[in-house]
Design a protein that fits this description.
The chain is mostly beta strands and 152 residues long. It contains 2 helices and 10 strands. The strands form 4 sheets. A 4-stranded antiparallel β-sheet has the order 2-3-4-5, with no helix packed on it. A two-stranded parallel sheet has the order 1-6. Strands 7-8 form a two-stranded antiparallel sheet.
Length: 152
């Protein structure tokens, strides 16, 4: 596993991991199976002080394919995790400048495709395969994640 070290990752908001917990989820990337949380804990050197503890949980899908939409592609052997990519915020936000409303993104790399190590259950994945019927071969599209492709 490769973690891209950085000097600082400004993360301003999160949400509670558990309703009674003081641990906050900063990143929950279902595509790469990564959760980053943080919480304040007593310092070991100075128990009167609290320090920020950050936890990174990575679940490695053991039978992940290089191309998750192609069940015949080779098994993935390399997993790369970059904090800058995991923490990017691509949803546009509205900001007000000099009385006018503008839309802005909090990241500059939102147009680059995301590498997924497993299916994001919120997205619909399909693949095309050859289907032989009465001696005629047709390419047919098949759904790989039915729950996210068909409305309930």
């Amino acid at each position: 596993f490769l973690l891209d070290p950085g000097i600082a990752y400004p993360v301003l908001a999160g949400y509670p991991w558990d309703s009674g917990d003081q641990e906050y989820v900063l990143v929950n990337n279902k595509c790469q199976c990564v959760t980053v949380t943080s919480k304040f804990v007593p310092s070991k050197e100075n128990p009167g002080e609290e320090i920020l503890e950050r936890n990174i949980r990575i679940l490695v899908p053991l039978k992940a394919r290089e191309n998750i939409s192609d069940p015949m592609s080779p098994l993935r052997t390399t997993f790369v995790y970059r904090m800058t990519e995991l923490c990017k915020k691509c949803d546009p936000v509205e900001i007000e400048l000099d009385g006018e409303i503008y839309q802005a993104q909090q990241s500059t790399s939102c147009n680059e495709p995301e590498t997924c190590y497993t299916y994001n259950r919120d997205k619909c994945y399909t693949t095309t395969f050859p289907f032989v019927y009465r001696g005629e071969t047709k390419n047919v599209q098949a759904v790989l994640t039915p729950a996210s492709c068909y409305a309930s």
